[in-house]
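Structure ticket #2291
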Amino acid sequence: MDIADNKQLVKQGAEAKIFKGSFLRKPAMFKERFRKTYRHPILDESITKERMKAEARSLVRCRMLGIHTPAVYSIDFSTRVIIMEDVSEDTQTMRMYIDNVQNSNKNDVLKELKPLMERVGQIIATLHKNSIVHGDLTTSNMLVKLGRDRSTPEVIIIDFGLSYVDGSAEDKGVDLYVLERAFLSTHPNTEELFKTLLQSYRRNYGKGSSEVLNKLEEVRMRGRKRTMVG
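Resolution: structure written out below.
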């Protein structure tokens, strides 16, 4: 699978490069995973293949559940590339969106962002109820697309490269903790917003949410102890 003709590098992370291009005359994103030279080549091929399959599987499952994620167009294990729908048009990262609202001098930032946090809580609850653990929840891995009336933002979840299927409350609690740490460190003075997100999570998850949120608190305590010990 050749991505060289019209590729444009848009992002490079620790695990992969993201290119923008076209596939079958449609705008597309190409995610190309790195080779890990410190691993045995056969082991590296096996791990990469399993992670690519897990990522594609999570994306497909999310769409079946009504969660907006990029559609998977094609996978090429030989070149380590997943080709996906380009969902970047008319979107911005949630990180940028929240920053813009916080810097807009509006009187009630909490009121402005509350519907968005409720939607995110609903999405994560749906993921977890169906045993999908994202593995890297941050406001940079969520895109915001405003509706036509400019009042109802649509949330698109991206980057499922570390995702996996697990029904344990522990792993779901860790997933929420990763988001909480990323959220509060990136967006100061947003504790109330994150509480709104968790309230929505509890409400939409329903039975079983208390166990997950109790695990979240346990993970928080372990994190505080590590910080104190150094």
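Closing remark: Strands lie at 8-12, 16-23, 26-33, 72-76, 81-85, 92-93, 132-133, 142-146, 153-157, 164-165.
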